[in-house]
Amino acid sequence: MKARVTVTLKSGILDPQGKAIEGALKTLGVNGVASVRQGKVFDIEIEGSDRAKVEAALKSAAEKLLANTVIENYRIDVSG
Amino acid sequence: MKAAVVVFPGINRERDMARALRLVSGKEPAMVWHADTALPAGTDLVVIPGGFSYGDYLRCGAIAARAPIMDAVRAFAQKGGLVLAVCNGFQIACESGLLPGVLMRNAQLRFICRDVYLRVERSDTPFTRGYNGGQVIRVPVAHGEGNYIADGETIARLEGEGRVLFRYSSPDGIVDPNWNHNGAMNGIAGIINDRGNVLGMMPHPENHVEAVMGRTDGRGLFAGLVDHFKAAA
Asked: DSSP character for B231?
């Protein structure tokens, strides 16, 4: 099955990289951007057809490695 | 003092650390590879040095924290063994649960490579007994992700329990935003765990132990540890 795990910073965590990107967009003439926060996307192909099992495995992957849950949230989207 | 320096792929400060340990303790430390599953018998001090383990991939120290040797390091710390985690080592310690919080990107987004002043907050720990409380030392930093962040509850605990050992300061020991190079909360440069046996710090004391480096302020950390083990023997 294919899945996408999206890791984003928890709100309240300062994101200077996001701010730098925001500034660069402005410089490039992309106006009206109120804020940018940078995250990560992991596209994962995982064996198995049991959706619940796959989601559980991906939750484990996110909790144990993909996200640092001190500062990051994660979202799991399983397709197919 | 039997020291063991843990080496991951991408670590680059292990030789500086081994040199400092050798010069100050008179004993050659063991170099332990990340894929090993055990520390040398009789290890007194585990050191996790600096560098760019696993290229800082995913997050600084994230992959190293999950390497096989870290189970042994965690067990060693659980039994009360002393762990010194410097720079990338501090990041690895936080990722591996040995210390709370996380080191994030420097607030001004620049990699900082320079000497900084640190105020030694207390001298009644094995790591800082070689200094006086309130003493200001000068040591190098070299990091892009040294911005120590933790939630309010953790910071309150760290402060309340006196677990901040080093803060960025002025040469006179004033801690304020002007002297906080990376934006770390409360100017935190180094902390210990709740049991006081694990120290994580961003600066590199190992690079200021010989006169040829211009300063020897870092020597006190290692000399204090040697004394600690002599006294305990």
From this structure: H
